[in-house]
Amino acid sequence: EELERLEACAADGIYSAGVNTVTNLYSAKIFRRWWKGSSVLEMGCGDGNTTRILLEDFDDVTVIDGSRALADKVAGEFPGVTVVCELFERWEPGRTYDTIVLNHTLEHVYDMVQILECAKQWLSPEGVICASVPNARSLHRQAAVLMGMLPAEDALTPSDIRAGHRRVSTPESFRAAFTQAGLRIEHSGGYWLKPLSNAQTDEWFTPEMNDAFMALGERYP
User: Fold this and answer.
1) How far is CA 28 from CA 70, 93, 137, 175, 194, in A?
2) How many whole angstroms separate alpha carbon 47 and alpha carbon 124?
3) pTM over 0.90
């Protein structure tokens, strides 16, 4: 059932639609400041936007995704990458990685803490996990609540459901998941000061505006 759900989301194409690509690339740009070592595991590859960046900095790149369509796409586009098609909960890599990346992945899983506990087991002793999720306190969500379009800031929108999201975290609940998994947080923050929905942003924002509001989100996380 879960694999079917993942395939349906992958077939929708929402992962690479418009500003979704911009936000994933900017998130990877932030991660790049923190990742380390020569080996990396990407948990959830989407359309391979982050994978492309990882190949620039790591000699040993492994990707795992539950969607056969997405796994095959990345395997075909990046022959040097080790690609695994499996659910995180069922996988045993038999090794560790210096960096583990979850770029907008944890909002899709049943249990964030469980997945972070898996990642912790797969992390080398001095390794680092880099992760991002949508922020329930985004300005566009706060505005939607005030306008009566959303019952609560962490409520799932039709776009969330279409993308297969299971939750929208607050900064506090996101950090708490790492603590519960027994991980130490070295850095946390934000990006993309987001006043409008994805659809409105795609219609009205220029690339320069996207870049500016991505950067402003680091100032005002």
Assistant:
1) 18, 23, 21, 19, 18
2) 26
3) yes
